[in-house]
Amino acid sequence: MDAGYILETRNLVKEFKGFVAVSDVSLRVRKGTVHALIGPNGAGKTTVFNLLTKFLVPTRGTIWFKGHDITRQKPAQIARRGVVRSFQISAVFPHLTVLENVRIGLQRHLHTSFHFWQSETSLHVLEERARQLLAQVSLESSANVVAVELPYGRKRALEIATTLALDPELLLLDEPTQGMGHEDVDRVKDLIRKLAVDRTILMVEHNMSVVSDLCHCITVLQRGTVLAEGTYAEVAANRQVQEAYMGVNHD
Fold first, then answer.
1. Do the beta carbons of residue 156 and residue 190 sit within 8 Å?
2. Which residue, 122, 153, 126, 121, is CA-closest to 139?
3. Rounded to the nearest 10 degrees, what angle do helices 127-136 and 98-106 cross at?
4. In this predicted model, what pLDDT tens digit does every residue of 110-146 receive, in sequence order?
5. For residues 202 and 184, what is the distance between their CA atoms, to the nearest angstrom?
6. 19-73: per-residue pLDDT in tens?
7. Which residue(s) pair with 204 in the sheet?
């Protein structure tokens, strides 16, 4: 594996009872970049994410992270290596405060992860770090707000803060701006740009303004296969992409 790449898949295949959802996908993500997976609905983007984080087991092919074959590792092992993901649907504890949500993400540093019966005082040592993470996503003023009361865009920012608690080297963001208004999109876009300063980001995203502004490299999927790859300008000029993704017919 080239030292310049943090993640690589080789001929990745996922079949579901005869249906091929991902077919022969070879993907390389360069360290320190923002890389996008785009494509029409059903192209296989989220399936690729699920394969990378081992929520699905590949039918064939291999996955490499920092030169190590992680194809057969479990989701918790993948996360411990530094590959952490968000989901399309915001996944926070709705009836805990913003600060409490992030502290739970930090519990692994106490080796008490998911031990909810631990006394609350045992988590106080994590409070300073939790507040630092909230500051990174501009939620420090909302620390004592119950998560269910946050606007949608702020919930997505909170989810990103909880993923940052796991110290990811590679952060996978699945539709980070889905369902957001213009103001929230700009806020999350600025957040992603800030996070990318010291980590690698692989994202699935439909909003092309976000992709064009943030991404160094774009991989286009169609029907589970790689259709094209390159910069936004290169991909946008590709006739196959225009026909398959943008609905342009050159005939």
1. no
2. 153
3. 110
4. 555 444 545 555 566 788 889 999 998 889 999 999 9
5. 20
6. 999 999 999 999 999 999 999 888 999 999 999 998 999 999 999 999 999 999 9
7. 37, 174
Given the structure tokens 């991902």, which residue do they identify? Answer: 22
* Cα within 13 Å of Cα(213), Cβ side: 15
Looking at residue 88, its pLDDT comes to 57
- Closest listed residue to residue 131, CA positions, set 152, 160, 103: 103
Cα–Cα distance for residue pair 39/13, rounded to 1 Å: 17
| DSSP character at residue 109 | G
pLDDT tens sequence across 168-197: 999 999 988 888 888 888 888 998 999 899
pLDDT at position 114 is 47
CB burial readout 188-223, b (16+ within 10 A) else e: bbebbeebbeebbbbbbbebbebbeebbebbbbbbe
Residue 8's SS3 state is strand
Give the CATH number of domain 5-244.
3.40.50.300
Distances (CA, A) of 154 to 118, 143, 161, 170, 175: 28, 12, 10, 22, 15
